[in-house]
Q: What sequence folds into this?
């Protein structure tokens, strides 16, 4: 926990439970909300699309932080759970004509149940065995989608859905989609912040730190491990539902292992066991990805012997791999830790010794 | 009825041989684990890299096959040592999660590097072994895969002797149990990991020759690593002798799923069958069939 500014002390539990303690913090927070609200007017619509996608991925990554960063259970299937959410959402919207406020939570539940199924081995196994069994979710998912009847999940063709409609607004412009996604992302992140401070969140952390000891003090570890997966996969499912309404054409190839690993890398870069870390990591890696996409044509012109699209793909892969390795070796606690150091050193300035 | 029997036996034989090929690849997972307590997710990419090196030496430099193979195997061993030096040495003693994630990062790096060097297009892989099958009575035996099965059984016997009987292999096994304790006993964890990577890279090159013989190679061939995963897990990643048995189970299970179930599921069942088998067995035996059962204390 970061240091509090000098002169702040609590007289009631209610004050201590708060996130925002001082007036400058309130000012910063409200300014941040204002910037988010007026963001569409500040940037071009292409960049707005980038931010919208970022907010969808943010939900999936914050969800991933719960099983990995808080409960300590490695999950390499987040992208498959997100895909399940997308397909359930799209299928309900197409086949049953359900409105958006019903389909997205149901998509979340769809992802959550798939996650819970693959979390069943979690009661018995741990470590890299778990990483591998969740990875099989990623292998089985596209085969399952292809094998199920076409009118249910679109099979090999994919599903095309109509834009979301809510309260008479049709979400088909960049601006409206931005508000929809940012709104849902804000709610989900709010819940995540509070979940990890609750009894459930503390149980998760106890399991992460030592699962045998936490079983001895009376935590039902099978239940909580499965629950962590369930919640994490619910976040993925909601993200998938939003993705379905954003991209409006979904296929099994949009939810591969490749993306699952991107999401875990965002956690590593941002920092394990911190919701803020999930946010920082997503923004950092996603921006890096966008910068490379932007520079791609330029790079191809400078190195023409390397060929077109493949070099972009290869460069992205090498960059991602190197970033993960560097963070694991030099800053395993991620950007969130750097941010905490920065904040603390600002508060105790001019005294040099921190941590 | 006899037609059914011949068909069924043919599927069974093919499945068993395929299982031995999986076993060879799973062996490269197991060796890295037995020498350094690292589960290498990037094994498929290592295999592709080995395949590309064979392709480069044998076809592009047009060396004789035996020389090309030796050069490819030697350079893969060197690459294995480089990987240990660059990536794993700074992470010795780190928690399990870092060791898992760094091998995943390695997937990306190796994939990117192969694309940068050899491009993303498919290239024909040379025929190292003649392709036409053996004919035994009414059955056809796929020659490269048969050869692969024999090689993998030989390698398994050799490695199992090394790891379980020789003093040198036992020090590696100690590293697989716990880095810190091994280090405090004076065993060099760095050397163990380097040896594990070198052996595993060599095994992957051999597997790539058998797997890719006469086919096309590009970076997507690394899926074979994913297909061999259930075998390594079923065996329990510590067990060298468990690997051929698990390979047999997965190979036969897959072949029979193709024969009996695929007509009803449109080809889906045989592809997910190994994974379902693996999940069920892990639920019953969390450390695989022959893995070490560790007792944990608080």
A:
């Amino acid at each position: 926990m970061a240091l509090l500014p000098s002169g702040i002390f609590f007289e009631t539990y209610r004050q201590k439970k708060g996130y925002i303690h001082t007036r400058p913090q309130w000012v910063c927070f409200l300014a941040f909300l204002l910037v988010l609200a007026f963001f569409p007017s500040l940037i071009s619509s292409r960049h707005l699309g980038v931010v919208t996608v970022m907010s969808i991925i943010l939900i999936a990554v914050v969800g991933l932080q719960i099983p990995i960063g808080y409960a300590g259970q490695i999950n390499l299937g987040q992208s498959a759970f997100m895909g399940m959410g997308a397909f359930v959402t799209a299928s309900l919207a197409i086949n049953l004509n359900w409105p958006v406020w019903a389909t997205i939570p149901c998509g979340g539940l769809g992802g959550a149940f798939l996650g819970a199924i693959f979390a069943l081995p979690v009661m018995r196994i741990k470590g890299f065995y778990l990483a591998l069994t969740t990875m099989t979710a990623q292998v089985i998912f596209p085969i399952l989608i292809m094998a199920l009847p076409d009118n249910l999940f679109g099979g090999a063709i994919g599903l095309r859905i109509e834009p979301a409609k809510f309260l008479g607004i049709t979400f088909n412009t960049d601006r409206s989609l931005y508000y929809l996604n940012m709104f849902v992302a804000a709610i989900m992140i709010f819940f995540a912040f509070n979940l990890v401070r609750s009894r459930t969140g503390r149980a998760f952390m106890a399991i992460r730190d030592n699962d045998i000891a936490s079983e001895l003090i009376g935590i039902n570890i099978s239940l909580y491990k499965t629950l962590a997966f369930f919640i994490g996969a619910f976040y993925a499912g909601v993200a998938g539902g939003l993705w379905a309404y954003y991209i409006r054409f979904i296929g099994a190839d949009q939810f591969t292992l490749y993306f699952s690993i991107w999401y875990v890398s965002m956690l590593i870069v941002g920092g394990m066991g911190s919701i803020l870390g999930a946010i920082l990591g997503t923004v950092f890696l996603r921006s890096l990805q966008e910068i490379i996409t932007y520079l791609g044509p330029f790079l191809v012109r400078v190195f023409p012997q390397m060929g077109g699209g493949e070099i972009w793909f290869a460069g992205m892969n090498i960059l991602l791999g190197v970033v993960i390795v560097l963070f694991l070796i030099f800053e395993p606690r991620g950007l969130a830790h750097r941010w905490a150091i920065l904040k603390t050193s600002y508060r105790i300035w001019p005294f040099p010794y921190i941590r | 009825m006899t037609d059914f029997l011949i068909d069924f036996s043919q599927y069974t034989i093919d499945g068993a041989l395929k299982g031995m090929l999986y076993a060879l690849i799973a062996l490269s997972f197991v060796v890295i684990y037995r020498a350094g307590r690292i589960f290498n997710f990037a094994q498929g990419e290592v295999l592709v890299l080995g395949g590309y090196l064979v392709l480069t030496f044998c076809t592009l430099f047009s060396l004789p096959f035996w020389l090309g193979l030796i050069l490819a195997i030697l350079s893969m061993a060197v690459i294995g040592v480089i990987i240990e030096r660059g990536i794993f040495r700074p992470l010795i003693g780190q928690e399990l999660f870092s060791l898992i994630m760094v091998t995943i990062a390695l997937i990306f790096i190796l994939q990117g590097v192969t694309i940068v060097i050899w491009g993303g297009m498919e290239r024909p892989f040379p025929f190292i072994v003649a392709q036409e099958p053996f004919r035994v009575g009414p059955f056809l035996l796929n020659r490269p895969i048969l050869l692969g099965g024999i090689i993998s059984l030989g390698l398994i016997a050799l490695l199992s002797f090394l790891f379980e009987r020789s003093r040198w292999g036992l020090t590696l096994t100690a590293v697989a149990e716990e880095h810190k304790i091994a280090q405090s006993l004076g065993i060099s964890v760095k050397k163990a990991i380097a040896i594990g990577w070198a052996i595993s890279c060599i095994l992957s090159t051999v597997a790539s020759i058998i797997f890719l013989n006469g086919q096309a190679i590009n970076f997507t061939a690394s899926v074979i690593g994913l297909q061999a995963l259930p075998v390594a897990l079923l065996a329990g990643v510590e067990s060298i002798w468990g690997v051929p048995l698990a390979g047999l189970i997965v190979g036969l299970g897959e072949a029979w799923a193709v024969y009996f179930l695929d007509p009803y599921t449109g080809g889906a069942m045989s592809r997910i069958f190994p994974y379902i088998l693996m999940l069920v067995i892990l639920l019953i035996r969390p450390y695989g069939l022959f893995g070490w059962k560790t007792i944990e204390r608080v």
Observations:
- The mean pLDDT of chain A is 82.
- Chain A touches chain B through 48 residues (CB under 8 Å).
- Residues 93 and 276 of chain A are 33 Å apart (CA to CA).
